[in-house]
Amino acid sequence: MKKFVVYTPLFAISSAVIALDQWTKWLVRTHLAIQETWVPWDWLEPYARIVRWKNTGVVFGMFQNIGEVIMVLSALISIAIIYYYPKVPKHEIYLKIALSLQLGGAVGNLIDRIARGYVTDFISIGKFAVFNVADSSISVGVVILLIGVWISEMRQKKQPVISEGHPAPEDVSKLPEGHE
Fold first, then answer.
1. How many domains is the chain partitioned into structurally?
2. Less crowded by CB within 10 Å, the N or C end of the chain?
3. How confident is the model at residue 13 (pLDDT cuts 50, 70, 90)?
4. Does the residue 6 lie in any domain?
5. What's the mean pLDDT when you consider all of the chain?
């Protein structure tokens, strides 16, 4: 049972992403025809709009018509995340969140590919490629990962250099008994 508790944050976050992704895609598919646009206010259209798009490629519409390859890669990445997640140290929360977001995004788009043969994209901002909640989750996960790694490296650079086998002077907890 203890092993499954380790996965609770991973599956909680990724399930929330999957649910939001699938619900928003369902709303778009239910109310818009392919390439139909919806904008709540006309003045907003040059900046942001909802447009139903059929994507057979990867994130942001790159590499169209390679859906089968992407399905296999998405499944392998999802399995790798599930395998690697318990090995992440508890203090690396940023990495756990990043992996959870990436798993949710990968599975959200994988569900579309399996069920429809394509991914429903609908968020259109400016002249940027059309994307969806799953794509956003993957991208935010990557950004969190990069920022977390950067912060971790900055912390390591600030720590005093320790010669092998000798603790830094501030770290008396690692001194052998009687050397305090």
1. 1
2. N
3. very high
4. yes
5. 87
Residue by residue, DSSP assigns the chain as: -HHHHHTHHHHHHHHHHHHHHHHHHHHHHHH--TT-EE-SSGGGTTTEEEEEEEE-SSGGG-STT-HHHHHHHHHHHHHHHHHHGGGS-TT-HHHHHHHHHHHHHHHHHHHHHHHHSSEEEEEEETTSPPB-HHHHHHHHHHHHHHHHHHHHHHHHHHSPP--TT---TT-GGGSPTT--
Asked whether residue 162 is domain-assigned, the answer is no
Residues with active-site annotation: 121, 135
Residue 147 pLDDT class (50, 70, 90 cuts): very high
Does residue 74 fall inside a structural domain?
A: yes
Q: Show the domain range for 104.
A: 2-156
- Per the domain annotation, does 175 fall within a domain? no
